[in-house]
């Protein structure tokens, strides 16, 4: 099996993932992906929820009484996730697009594996700066990746893009690192991207993939303490300014739940079960509404404000 480093742990896979960093050693992996010819058609599988992937492609989630999950995609097949999230079995249709399948694994499949462990997975981007993590949440096209890229250009380290893993740790929360790539619109990539390449192998892709060389960056195997959560709100107009405002506890917790990576798949009841975790996250870390002008020329102001709000530990705020 191939072995990779991701989320601060080891991922053993029967399928190669060229976008991940290889890891040597014979230790027990935290996650294992097997490719199987079929999955048994037994058990009392209950439907949890469904989620669109793109035009004409959707996914549904099924749950067995023992907590085993099956995520079924219209195009890439079925991924079965054990109740503890450690074992993934993939039954693929003939002629499957493995690039799409890898994207599914690194997105919703891993999000569900963490959910099995009671860990929140959010739709956003995250960076590390001065030893702490900042997380940016928003729907698509709201500037999460661009904000993260601007901070990386200013000296931060990229922790995650699209899938942000927030785990309870020693009375607080930490961000688990994923890999050093971002998907950006071409104009944003030209301004804040250090190294850009076409997204996957698709010549018609409208975004570019920015890859960061972080060999000299500090490693964070245990995760980075989370110091701030921002809900991005793009603004228009000449008078638009970078400004933040704190959300009170209940709206903050609901805002976090609104950006769950797999909220639609889990269904309303399972999402509400996560409310205590989201409330604890909002109380201990804090959630801010962050207004950001839709203007790439204003990125330096955004970076300056964020660095002022989150200075190095021990300095005066």
Outline:
The chain has helices spanning 98-115, 144-153, 186-192, 249-257, 263-266, 268-273, 275-285, 299-309; strands at residues 2-6, 9-13, 21-22, 31-36, 46-54, 57-63, 69-73, 77-81, 87-91, 120-129, 132-137, 157-169, 172-176, 181-184, 196-198, 208-211, 224-235, 243-246, 287-293. It is α+β, with helices and mostly antiparallel strands. The protein folds into two domains: 2-117, no CATH class; 121-309, Rossmann fold (3-Layer(aba) Sandwich).
What does this molecule look like?
- This protein is of the alpha+beta class.
- It folds into two domains: 2-117, no CATH class; 121-309, Rossmann fold (3-Layer(aba) Sandwich), CATH 3.40.50.
- Helices cover 24% and strands 37% of the residues.
- It contains eight helices and 19 strands.
- The protein has helices at residues 98-115, 144-153, 186-192, 249-257, 263-266, 268-273, 275-285, 299-309, and strands at residues 2-6, 9-13, 21-22, 31-36, 46-54, 57-63, 69-73, 77-81, 87-91, 120-129, 132-137, 157-169, 172-176, 181-184, 196-198, 208-211, 224-235, 243-246, 287-293.
- The strands form three sheets. A nine-stranded mixed beta sheet has the order 3-1-2-4-9-8-7-6-5. The chain has a five-stranded mixed β-barrel with strand order 10-11-17-13-12, surrounded by four helices. The protein has a three-stranded antiparallel beta sheet with strand order 14-16-15.
- Strand 5 (46-54) and strand 6 form a beta hairpin.
- Helix 4 (249-257) crosses helix 7.
């Amino acid at each position: 099996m191939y072995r990779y480093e991701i989320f601060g742990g080891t991922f053993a896979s029967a399928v190669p993932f060229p976008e991940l960093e290889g890891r040597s050693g014979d230790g027990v992996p935290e996650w294992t992906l097997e490719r199987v010819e079929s999955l048994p058609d037994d058990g009392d599988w209950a439907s949890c929820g469904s989620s669109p992937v793109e035009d004409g492609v959707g996914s549904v989630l099924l749950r067995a009484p023992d907590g085993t999950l099956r995520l079924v995609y219209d195009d890439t097949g079925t991924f079965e996730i054990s109740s503890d999230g450690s074992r993934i079995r993939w039954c693929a249709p003939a002629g499957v697009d493995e690039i799409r399948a890898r994207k599914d694994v690194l997105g919703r499949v891993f999000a569900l594996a963490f959910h099995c462990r009671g860990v929140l997975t959010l739709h956003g981007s995250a960076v590390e700066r001065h030893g702490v993590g900042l997380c940016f949440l928003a729907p698509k096209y709201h500037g999460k990746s661009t904000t993260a890229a601007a901070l990386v250009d200013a000296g931060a380290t990229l922790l995650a893009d699209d899938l942000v893993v927030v785990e309870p740790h020693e009375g607080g929360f930490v961000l688990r690192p994923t890999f050093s790539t971002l998907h950006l619109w071409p104009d944003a990539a030209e301004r804040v991207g250090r190294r850009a390449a076409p997204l996957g192998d698709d010549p018609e892709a409208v975004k570019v993939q920015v890859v960061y060389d972080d060999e000299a960056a500090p490693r964070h195997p245990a995760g980075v303490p989370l110091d701030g959560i921002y809900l991005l709100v793009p603004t228009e107009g000449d008078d638009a300014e970078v400004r933040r405002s704190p959300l009170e506890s209940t709206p903050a917790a609901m805002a976090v739940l609104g950006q769950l990576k797999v909220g639609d798949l889990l269904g309303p009841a399972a999402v509400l079960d996560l409310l205590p975790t989201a409330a604890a996250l909002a109380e201990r870390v804090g959630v801010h509404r962050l207004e950001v002008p839709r203007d790439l020329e204003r990125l330096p102001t955004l970076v300056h404000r964020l660095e002022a709000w989150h200075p190095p530990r021990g300095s005066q705020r």
